[in-house]
Predict the structure.
Amino acid sequence: MLSRLRRFAIFFHRWLGVAFCFLFAMWFLSGMVLMYWDYPEVSSQDRLEHSAPLDPTRVRLSPEQAYAALKRPDSPNSIRLITFDGRPAYRFGRVLVYADDGRVQDRFPPDLTSQMAADWAAESPDAASREIVTDADEWTVSGEVLRLRPFDKYSWPDGKQVYVSQRTGEVAQFTTRASRLGAYFGAIPHWLYFTPLRQNGRLWNKTVLWASGVGTVTSLFGLIVGLWIMLPAQRIPYKGQKRWHAILGLIFGLTASTWVLSGFLSMEPFSFSDGPREMGSEIAQALGAGDFSDPAFAERPPSSVFQPAIKQLEFTFFADKPAYLAWSDRPHIIPADGTAVDAARILEIVKQAAAPATIVESRLVTEYEAYYLDRHHQRPLPVLFVRFNDPAASMFYIDPATAQIVAGYDSASRWNRWLYHGLHSLDLPWLYRYRPAWDLTVLALMAGGAWLCVTSIIIAAQLLARKLRRRSY
């Protein structure tokens, strides 16, 4: 019985290794690139950095007056005051109303989008070539960007490419030769982010699930076979590439298995949650819900909260009362009634919103920790940590500067944090804190995994060559 199981395990590992060795090698090699060159995207921080500071002297209309220009019977769902085309403007969803004269900007012709693109790229608009993009290409295939089609795409001789949405007038994507090259060798092969496949979301999801699932089983079988063969005899009975494959498998096989497994879990095949959604929703609503028809915005207009470095004002709420979220280097909330926002007040609101659950731990987090990490140091600090005594032991990290939840976990999502992020990124506080310890550790393991896969490719080629020679006789 054991000999049959052993033969089956060897057979399974050998032929699935032949079928998937190139894919596994590609995952390891592209993972090394992905550590430093991500898929290009335009983040909210990018938009902020490319925005000009607001000029309060040119804001002549209140948001109520600006929204009235749209002649809509309902209240807006969101309001932002930004600088657009050098002028202050209210953005209500996809529509703009200029705050100086009330003119509505709901169409974005080429003369306007070309200037938007040129300002973003710091190039001359006359030097760019224009193309209308209506279908997804490699850089606009993600759902968030795709919803902003069609795009005016502007390309410059130095390789810069800017996609401006004809729906919103905003820059939706920006790439350079370097960022595209990094993605071609990193994110695209690692995520199987090839346009024809990614356009079909369901097919892409199933492809990644099956490939990573089979990879997990294959690598585990290889590790089992290696131990099965080596332990009784205390030696490896192979020569050449097979010997190297066995040695590397025993050293890096477990890491390879956990990496492929965590990649499989990243597609959420099981019911791991993203966090305590119900309680998180109640707390978020208590901290930030409200009605835009509230006249308090008119009582304290935007001009009363302006500071020199503010680039955007988002109309929001704190404790069911109007407030402004001011964006400069870092966002901060300014209640319209002038009251202070501090950790103690946030804690009291959270306590009431979570009832009947009670807070069992609360503290101010000033350094990244196990459940709140960022190797790029972009997540805000300090943050308020709260943990509750509900059955899921829900816990949240709340930014006191914005009164917003920035991370949340329950019992299921804590497992997901370690089984996915912990295994896949090795995002351990000690390694992140003492870089380049993280870089050296991950690169060494990646290089070992890649070497293991290269020996698989060589063995597969030798095996197939032998099979073909036999058939030719």
